[in-house]
Amino acid sequence: MFKKIILGSLVCFCTSIFGMSLSDLNQASKEELMAIKGIGEVKADAIIDERSKEKFKSFDDLQRVKGIGPRTAENIQNDVKSKSAEDEE
Questions:
Q1: With b meaning 16 or more CB within 10 Å and e meaning fewer, what string describes 7-44?
Q2: 79, 89, 70: which is closest to 32 by C-alpha?
């Protein structure tokens, strides 16, 4: 029984991380952001700081974050969308 509870919690946690959309990106915790390919602790902190000033309206807005350029923003977008698509299957 205990294993089922742990497994269920883990599935819910992973779904919330990998099903991330742009709106979720505006609310994600530091740990959830760090689960995205290319986002480490420093960039996660920078994302949180920047979105507190103004919410992201597009993935291009990620370029306001120090250390994130067009290529990184595109990679984040592709990573988030591909993980969202996997969850829908």
A1: eeeeeeeeeebbebebeebbebeeebbbbbeebeeebb
A2: 79
Indicate the residue type of 24: D
Per-residue model confidence (pLDDT) at position 87: 55
Q: What is the dihedral of CA 20, 25, 27, 29, to 10 degrees?
A: 80
- Over residues 38-77, the pLDDT tens digits come to 899 999 999 999 999 999 999 899 999 999 999 999 988 8
**Which amino acid is it at 40?**
G
For 73, the token pair is: 């923003």
Query: pTM higher than 0.85 for the full model?
Result: no
